[in-house]
């Protein structure tokens, strides 16, 4: 083949168009012009709106997982906060209930103490207030332990009462505490007076299960009725006279016995007492006849005694 017939042009695969530098300058100039035109005449805004409408569904779908996750977090956090609020509210209600019960108890104790103090003023005798610590563990006796003892001046046989009446008697004294035998104990007895008839008698602790007293040795024809009030007679030299003891609740007259069976209910709170008043026995305030001066002897004849 002759040399003049050869095609010296490059093949289409290696053909190059406009140079890269020319393209860079051209597109840069177009970008600057578009930016200037958009800044000055706002000509690209319709294109932005159209593009935002086109890509909004894509954005919405892309954000759904995050939105759902936020909703789940809010739901769990809201439930947890609600549970915490409920627990706090329950704790507050419980605390308020405890405080209310404590206030009621303090009000009741304050009322009882005021009544005891006014009772001491009315009696006009030496007395001291004491708090009941616990009930004796012996199931066959009815006794209480109070927080006053020999160091506080408590004496054996001292009468003990609450604002309603006689509750018992001090039977054992320790340095810091004392033991009270209740009027309903089967080993206890107290002289009483029927305020309606003036009849005297002796009330004993009932040996049955109920905390009652029994007025013994009263004839079947004795004038005594249900609801009669019994007070201390004062003949024993221990209890001051006129203090309420019990109320008659049952009178049983039996043909086979010369004595009536009379059951009485204590007017004092023998069960559940919190504060009591310990008084001095009546005999401690009575004069000792051994300390009195001897009686003068009559004069004998001659002026000598």
Q: What is the helix/strand order?
A: HHEEEEEEEEEEEE
**Biggest sheet statistics:** 6 strands, antiparallel, barrel
Helical residue percent? 25-40%
Category by helix and strand content = alpha+beta
Low-pLDDT parts are: 286-292
End-to-end CA span = 196 Å
Compute the number of strand runs: 12
Q: Specify Rg, calculated over alpha carbons.
A: 52 Å
Give the strand order, joined by hyphens, for the main sheet: 1-2-5-4-3-12
CATH superfamily of the largest domain: Rod shape-determining protein MreC, domain 1
CATH C-level label of the largest domain: Mainly Beta
Task: Based on Cα principal axes, name the global outline.
Answer: rod-shaped
Work out the count of structural domains. 2
Label the CATH architecture of the largest domain: Beta Barrel
Helix count from the secondary structure assignment: 2
Task: Describe this protein's structure.
A hairpin with a 7-residue loop joins strand 1 and strand 2. The protein has 2 helices and 12 strands. It is of the alpha+beta class and 305 residues long. It has 2 domains: 89 residues; 158 residues, Rod shape-determining protein MreC, domain 1 (Thrombin, subunit H), CATH 2.40.10. The strands form 2 sheets. Strands 1-2-5-4-3-12 form a 6-stranded antiparallel β-barrel. A 6-stranded antiparallel β-barrel has the order 6-7-8-11-10-9. The protein is rod-shaped, with a radius of gyration of 52 Å.
């Amino acid at each position: 083949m002759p040399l003049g017939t050869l095609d010296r042009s490059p093949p289409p695969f290696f053909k190059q168009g406009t140079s890269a530098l020319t393209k860079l300058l051209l597109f840069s100039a177009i970008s600057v012009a578009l930016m200037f035109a958009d800044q000055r005449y706002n000509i690209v805004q319709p294109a932005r709106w159209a593009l935002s409408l086109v890509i909004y569904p894509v954005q919405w779908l892309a954000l759904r997982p995050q939105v759902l996750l936020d909703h789940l977090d809010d739901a769990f956090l809201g439930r947890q906060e609600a549970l915490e609020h409920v627990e706090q509210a329950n704790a507050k209600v419980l605390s308020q209930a405890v405080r209310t019960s404590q206030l009621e108890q303090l009000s009741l104790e304050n009322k009882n103490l005021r009544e005891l103090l006014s009772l001491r003023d009315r009696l006009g005798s030496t007395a001291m207030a004491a708090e009941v610590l616990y009930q004796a563990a012996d199931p066959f006796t009815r006794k209480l332990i109070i927080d006053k003892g020999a160091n506080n001046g408590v004496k054996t046989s001292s009468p003990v009462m609450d604002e309603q009446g006689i509750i018992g008697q001090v039977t054992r004294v320790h340095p810091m505490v004392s033991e009270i035998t209740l009027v309903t104990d089967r080993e206890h007895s107290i002289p009483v007076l029927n305020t309606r008839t003036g009849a005297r008698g002796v009330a004993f602790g009932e040996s049955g299960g109920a905390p009652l007293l029994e007025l013994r040795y009263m004839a079947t024809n004795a004038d005594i009725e249900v609801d009669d009030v019994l007070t201390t007679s004062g003949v024993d030299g221990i209890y001051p006279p006129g203090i309420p003891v019990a109320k008659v609740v049952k009178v049983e007259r039996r043909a086979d016995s010369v004595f009536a069976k009379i059951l009485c209910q204590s007017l004092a709170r023998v069960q559940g007492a919190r504060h009591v008043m310990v008084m001095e026995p009546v005999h401690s305030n009575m004069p000792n006849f051994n300390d009195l001066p001897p009686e003068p002897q009559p004069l004998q004849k001659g002026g000598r005694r």
